[in-house]
Model the fold of this input.
Amino acid sequence: MTIALALEQLLNGIQLGVMLFLMAAGLTLIFGVMGLINLAHGSLYMVGAFACATVAAWTGSFWIGLVASLIAAAAAGAIVELVVIRRLYDRDHLDQVLATFALILMFSEGTRWLFGSFPLYLDIPPLLQGAVALPGGTEYPLYRLAIIAAGALVAFGLYMLISRTRLGMRIRAGESDREMIGALGVDIRTLYTVVFALGAALAGFAGAMVGAIQSVQVGMGEPVLILAFVVIVIGGIGSIKGALLGALLVGVTDTMGRFLLPKLMLLFVPPAQAGMIGGAIASMLIYIVMAVILAVKPRGLFPPAHA
Amino acid sequence: MLLTRENLVNLILALGLLAVPLAANALGQPFYITLATRVAILALAATGLNLALGVGGLVSFGHAAFFGIGGYAAGILAAHNFSGDPLFFGFSGTNQMWIIWIVAVAMAGLVGLVIGAISLRTSGVYFIMITLAFAQMVYYFAVSWPAYGGEDGLSILVRNQFPGVMTMVPLNYFLICYVILLLGIALFAVIRASRFGAALQAARQNEVRVATVGIQPYRIRLTAFVISAALTGLAGALFADLNRFVSPSMLSWHMSGELIVLIILGGTGRLFGPLAGAALYVAFEYALGGLTERWQFFLGLILLLVVLFARGGLLGVLAGKARHG
Amino acid sequence: MVEPVLHISNLVKNFGALRATDGVTIDLRPGEIHALIGPNGAGKSTLIHQICGTLRQDSGIIRFAGQDVGALTVAERARLGLGRTFQVSSIAPEFSALRNVMLAVQAKEGSSFRFFKPVMRDKGLIDTAMAMLERVGLTARARIPAAELSHGERRQLEIAMALALQSKVFLLDEPMAGMGPEGSKSLTRFLDTLRKEAPILLVEHDMDAVFALADRISVLVYGRVIATGTVEEIRRDPTVRTAYLGDHA
Done:
């Protein structure tokens, strides 16, 4: 039984990792191409979740909701980029942090204004309800497996986009040399808007997918955002590969830590304290992992070659 | 001291903060005294951060950790004093503010040393995100550790004591906080003008130049970070005693963001920037909060406009551009 | 023979497959100006970075002031007396010229961990810094923010800082770069007096200045020193002529 339980936790960890990757990929892409740190990325995740829940409630279809989440998040991203973000590219990181912090306040309070303070609920689509038998006799929710598959598909799609397409070529050029893309005759302003909207759509997609297993509420993006920061710091800011590995590392470490550490503590302390100490350490575990990695490699596991 | 325009504005700010609670006391409006105390404490916390951020250019997005640690130092010591349980290693709790302040300063400084030692190996965006992440670590620890209230926080049943002062009288407690704020601002001014301050400012402007004259920027920055953390920790202890309550919200990343916002609203690196910013912030909160439930939306909008269009902050508007000797 | 102040032997630095520094051996003797010349991309900057400590060599030895400094940080080497100027002047832009030099003086005097005495009331610090500014001819510009100084003035300011450090060696990275003909001439005269303070390793493209100042010249091509000698020897060296000097000689 324990092995089956461990397998289940491992899958949960991978599922968390996949979601974190969707967030981290956008953040790291935006930083890599535009040199911008965007705290409001979690708000776009929230926008995706609210759009999906609202449209799904109207139409009765999760799938239409999912499409709506992509459109809403990409549109919100594009508007924010056009109105605010593009004034920040030449500013220092402090200004970027503050302006995007201000955007969080506006997004959160604005959403509360529109939707009220009560959480929305989003049902898992019928196609993905039910469970799958795992080796060892336990069952695992089909929907969570679908999230993993969807995330893997997006990761692959992103890889193809960046390595095989014209847009991808421009993004790579933008990462290595801002002036070069100008020389290539690319309209940089449009490219930046597109990249920002793409990152936003990824965040919105993640928000919609997670919305069906958690409640959809204001502030839901913030814990995810901070975990995504940890991911890209570990992976190396600007690196998609680093974001993928960092996301899986953080997802699995966090989930398995919460599962295993209280049990591990039983070996050392009485049961009453084992849960408490184990739980407390588990809640800090990914930050400890981050500190250790940074102590050895201050620029993360896959630092961008140029900077 | 020369009576420049900035000094005049500073003087008005300092006297203004004193005048409000005195008037409120005379008019029997204790609520405004609490508001002014809040301003003084937030200004002290932001003055601490201003040393790292404004003078040293170290954009710490994790100073809530130090603010909260100061707060928990007050809360935990008071709780042990109340229950009579020893703390650890035979130490007991206390309700004496000056002991609590020392502990708050020491603990925040110590954690600042650890966080700073790791974070300062990096710079730029990495530094911002790592300080944020470490503060979250402290936050989650406080949430998941049930002994001191976990998520629910910890109440301080009776405000801690200071020899010869009735601390429960609002005006008295304001005066304690006010004096400490002025001392904190004085310390900031002295450090900024010193050799250490010169090296710290130079490291912000040009790290390579500092190393080339033979000064290790890392050591200078780490020292500044620790002093900064300790000051913010002291403010945290005062905040806990003001509210007679401490909870993980003092450690949250919103708190870190707010502290930066105070500095920017007031004017980055300016001596009285944090006080101007804190006064403005609390006034916004109070005035907007009275007008609309959605005041945070408008706060965000104002902040966005300040960042985009008024980068000098309030002191930039009132006292002109910052000057260097 | 006199012991060299700075002695670099068999220095190697690779960037991936590229060998940017390929077994460089070079020394600097007391009282001399030793010029390092070579075409762009010859690895002069990489070499300078390794001498100062911003880059770590893969192998080889850097001896300075009688000790192996190959593992020391930039700041530690500076404290031993390695003074330098940069290709693009490196100054604290918000500080006045005076405060820039005061920073160097305080670093030389010892600790920057003094928290209480205001620097602007520290007469000793100010007087020493003013003396350095006077020597480079910047007295009248002492209170001007460094960001507002002209290109040439910033160069003078950097040299004032190196003087304040009482450097045992001056490492000057293309000091003539960006200077007009008049500026180059007066800087050349100034460097000629500077050699009395300490020997100079001069990286320079301006051949007039190099030939006017250098006691010895080393020629760096593709990361290797292809020749070292007096001005006359280098002028006559056939490999140098083909590899670098061309019609200059």
Summary: The mean pLDDT of chain B is 91. The first strand of chain B starts at residue 154 and ends at 155. Chain B touches chain C at residues 190-191, 193-199, 201-202, 205-206, 208-217, 220, 223, 324-325 (CB under 8 Å).
